[in-house]
Write a structure and sequence with these properties.
Its EC number is 3.1.6.1. InterPro entries: Alkaline_phosphatase_core_sf, Sulfatase, Sulfatase_N. Belongs to the sulfatase family. Keywords: Hydrolase, Signal. The chain is an alpha/beta fold and about 475 residues long. The protein folds into two domains: about 350 residues, Alkaline Phosphatase, subunit A, CATH 3.40.720; about 100 residues, Arylsulfatase, C-terminal domain. About 25% of the residues lie in helices and about 20% in strands. The protein is built from eleven helices and 22 strands. The strands form six sheets. A ten-stranded mixed β-sheet has the order 8-7-6-5-9-1-10-11-2-12. Strands 14-15-16-19 form a four-stranded antiparallel β-sheet, covered by helices on one side. Helix 2 packs across helix 7. The longest helix is centred in the N-terminal third of the chain and has 24 residues. About 50% of the residues are buried. About 5% of the residues have low confidence.
Length: about 475
C-alpha cells in the first residue's frame, strides 16, 4: 500500500511539473503593459531618483531588463498612447495632440491594437485607467479589442476644478476649465460615476490596482492581456491617505511611492496565482515630466527640457521589461527602442499576427532574449505639434531641425500645483553626440558634416512617407483618424 501511495505521489508530481512546463512553453504568455502618465526618466531609483525609495521598481529591475534609451513616440498623452497600442508613428494615423472632452477626433477603429491582435489569438483582454484616444462611445476601449474597460476617457485635469482643487463655476470668464464636464468614470461604454474632487482622484491608484489584481486572479487559467494606464503622476497630484506625507519628498514623492506600491501588488498577484514565470510584464511612461509644475512634476535626470517638446527630456522615458526564464534578470540595455516597438515585440512573444496595415514598430524579442546583441532600430523620427518633424535620432546621434519649441529652461517653474509660464524659442539646426553629450549642449555639426548629410537623407524619407508641416510636405502613407459626431 505504501508503495502504491508513493507511486501516486511521484506520478502526481510529474504531472504537476509537466503542467508547469506546458504553461511556460505553450507559446501564449500572459502580457501586462503598465503605463504611467508624465512619469519622468529619473523618477524611480533604478534610473537615479533622489529623495525617496521605490523598492518595487528596484525589484522589477532586478527581475528583468531596464532600457536606458527607450523613447515615447511623441511627448504628449494621446499621441504616445496611440503609438504604443498601434505600433505606428502618431502622425501616420492622424493623432498628434492631446484630445480634450470637446475634441471630435479619435483613434480610427480600423487601426489594429495590441488588444485586437491578441484577442484573435484567444486572449482575454482588459483595460484599466486612462484611455485618451476618444472621449465617448463607440470610441472607447471595448471597440478596439478590449473585452472590458474601467477608467476615465482623458486626463484628469480636464475638469471644472482649479489648481488648488476648488470648483470652477460654469460662468467663470476666461477659464477653459469652466467648459469641462465633471470627469466621468466608465465601465465599458456606460458612465458609472464621476470624479468631482481631488479627494476622489486620490483613490484612483488604489482602485485601479485592486481591479488589476482581480483581473489577474479571474483569468489566471487562460492567456490574458492587461493594459493598466495609471492617470498619475499627471497633475493634479492626488494620493491616498496610505501614502500622504510618507515619502519624505513632498507630494510628488508620495504619488510615486503609491505607484511603486501598485507595481508591487501586481507582481505579488502574479506570483500568488502561479503565473509570474509565464507573464511578459512591461512598465513605462507615456512621456517625460511636465516641468512647468516644478515640485509637482517629475525629473528628467538631466535630459533636456520635458513633456511637450521634442527633446529627450520629453520623449526618453523609463522602461522595465520582465519575462522570467526568457529575459536575463538584472540586465541593462542602452540600445535604442521606442514604444512603437512594444506591439511587434508582443506579437513575437505570443506568436500572434502583425496588423495588416503598415506599422513602424520593430520586433525586439530576439534582442531582449539574448539571441542578438544589437537593436533592430537605428532611426527614430521625433514629430511634435501634430506633424512637425523636429528631431531625428540616428544611432547615437541626434540631429535637431529648425523649429519653435517650449523652453522650460528659460522660465521659472511653478510650485505646489500652480504651473509657471513657459516661453517659446526658435531652435536652430544642431547635431549632438549623445555618447559624450547626453544633455545636448554642444553643437558639433561643423565637425561632422557627413553625419548631418546622412541624417538629412533620412529626413527626406520621413517627409515623403509621413509628411512634415515645417517644410509643407504631405506624406504619401498617412491614414486618417476617426471623427466623432
Amino acid at each position: 500500500m505504501k508503495k502504491i501511495v508513493f507511486l501516486l505521489i511521484v506520478l502526481l508530481g510529474m504531472g504537476l511539473i509537466h503542467a508547469q512546463k506546458k504553461q511556460v512553453s505553450d507559446g501564449k504568455p500572459n502580457v501586462i503593459v503598465i503605463l504611467m502618465d508624465d512619469m519622468g526618466y529619473a523618477d524611480t531609483e533604478p534610473y537615479g531618483n533622489a529623495g525617496y525609495s521605490t523598492p518595487n521598481f528596484d525589484k522589477l529591475a532586478n527581475e528583468g531588463v531596464r532600457m536606458t534609451h527607450f523613447y515615447a513616440a511623441q511627448a504628449v498623452c494621446t499621441a504616445s498612447r496611440a503609438a504604443l497600442l498601434t505600433g505606428c508613428y502618431p502622425t501616420r494615423i492622424g493623432l498628434g495632440h492631446a484630445l480634450g472632452p470637446w475634441d471630435t477626433t479619435a483613434l480610427n477603429p480600423k487601426e489594429e491594437t495590441i488588444a485586437t491582435v491578441l484577442k484573435k489569438q484567444g486572449y482575454v483582454t482588459g483595460m484599466l485607467g486612462k484611455w485618451h484616444l476618444g472621449s465617448k462611445a463607440p470610441f472607447l476601449p471595448t471597440h478596439y479589442g478590449f473585452d472590458t474597460f474601467y477608467g476615465i476617457p482623458y486626463s484628469h485635469d480636464y475638469w471644472p476644478v482649479d489648481y488648488k482643487g476648488n470648483p470652477v463655476p460654469k460662468d467663470t470668464p476666461n477659464d477653459w476649465r469652466a467648459t469641462c464636464p465633471v470627469l466621468p468614470i466608465y465601465e465599458g461604454d456606460t458612465q458609472v460615476g464621476t470624479i468631482p474632487t481631488l479627494e476622489e482622484a486620490s483613490q484612483l491608484t488604489t482602485t485601479l490596482t485592486e481591479k488589476a489584481e482581480a483581473f489577474i486572479t479571474k483569468n489566471k487559467n487562460k492567456p490574458f492581456f492587461l493594459y493598466l494606464a495609471h492617470p498619475l503622476p499627471h497633475v493634479p497630484l492626488a494620493v491616498s491617505s496610505k501614502f500622504k506625507g510618507k515619502s519624505g519628498a513632498g507630494l510628488y514623492g508620495d504619488v510615486i511611492s503609491e505607484i511603486d506600491w501598485s507595481i508591487g501588488k501586481i507582481m505579488e498577484a502574479l506570483k500568488k496565482n502561479g503565473i509570474d514565470k509565464n507573464t511578459l510584464l512591461i512598465v513605462t511612461s507615456d512621456n517625460g515630466p511636465w516641468l512647468s509644475y516644478g515640485n509637482h512634476g517629475g525629473s528628467t535626470g538631466g535630459l533636456r527640457e520635458g513633456k511637450g517638446t521634442a527633446w529627450d527630456g520629453g520623449t526618453r522615458v523609463p522602461c522595465y521589461i520582465s519575462w522570467p526564464g526568457k529575459i536575463a534578470p538584472g540586465s541593462v540595455s542602452n540600445q535604442l527602442m521606442t514604444n512603437m516597438d512594444i506591439l511587434p515585440t508582443i506579437v513575437g512573444a505570443t506568436n500572434a499576427h502583425l496588423p495588416k496595415e503598415k506599422i513602424d514598430g520593430l520586433d525586439f524579442l530576439p534582442m531582449l532574449t539574448g539571441k542578438i546583441n544589437k537593436s533592430p532600430r537605428e532611426v527614430f523620427y521625433v514629430y511634435y505639434d501634430n506633424n512637425n518633424l523636429k528631431i531625428i535620432r540616428y544611432k547615437t546621434w541626434e540631429l535637431v531641425l529648425p523649429h519653435n519649441s517650449q523652453a522650460y529652461s528659460q522660465g521659472l517653474p511653478g510650485k505646489d500645483g500652480t504651473p509657471g509660464k513657459v516661453p517659446y524659442v526658435n531652435v536652430p539646426m544642431a547635431l549632438y553626440d549623445l555618447i559624450h553629450d547626453p544633455g545636448t549642449i554642444q553643437d558639433v555639426q561643423s565637425q561632422y558634416p557627413e553625419v548631418v548629410e546622412e541624417i538629412m537623407k533620412l529626413a527626406e524619407l520621413a517627409r515623403e512617407d509621413m509628411g512634415d508641416a515645417l517644410t509643407k510636405r504631405v506624406g504619401k502613407n498617412n491614414r486618417p483618424a476617426a471623427k466623432m459626431e
